[in-house]
Design brief:
Elements: H1 2-5, H2 11-24, H3 36-48, H4 55-70, H5 84-104, H6 112-115, H7 132-136, E1 137-139, E2 146-148, H8 150-156
Helix pairs in contact: 3-5, 4-5
Length: 157
């Protein structure tokens, strides 16, 4: 529940949300997720590009990671030069580095999140440049045939 909602909130609302959860579930201890497996590769990716990791960028990157694990499509919004492209490209590169390290390692993976890790590719599309039917697909009313849309063809790759 936390991973699905926290990325949507403003900074002030995040603390309020956590307090509400404590009130609703007093017997449950809310722990932080362990992202140590990801943090070093993020630092490697950003260092290679001569970029500095700020606390805010780091938090957003981890929130974005959680969100992409929960949702099919994600929209990053923000001002120009706000770090949106850097965020998703850095995350993809970092996860792919971790995956490559795991493939080359002889050790057995015990972390559940690492066991389910998949190679990340990203495709940017401008949904305003095509129709809804071209994006999602369309069923021909006469024949009943399904014409696949861009989103589903990307997911099949």
């Amino acid at each position: 529940m936390i991973n699905a909602n926290i990325p949507k909130f403003l900074k002030e609302d995040k603390e309020l949300f956590k307090k509400i959860l404590v009130d609703l579930y007093p017997d449950v201890t809310l722990g932080d997720m362990d992202y140590s497996w990801l943090e070093e590769s993020v630092k490697t990716v950003l260092d290679a590009e001569n970029k500095t990791v700020t606390k805010g960028f780091h938090e957003k990157l981890l929130e974005f990671h959680d969100t992409t694990n929960l949702r099919f499509g994600v929209m990053l919004v923000g001002p120009p030069n706000g770090g949106k492209s850097c965020l998703y490209k850095s995350l993809a590169s970092a996860v792919n580095i971790v995956l490559a390290q795991l493939e080359n390692s002889k050790e057995e993976v015990t972390n559940a999140e690492l066991k389910n890790l998949k190679h990340i590719t990203h495709t940017c599309i401008n949904p305003k440049s095509i129709s809804k039917e071209e994006l999602y697909g369309l069923q021909d009313k006469m024949t009943g045939d399904w014409k696949e849309g861009l989103a589903s063809s990307i997911m099949k790759r």
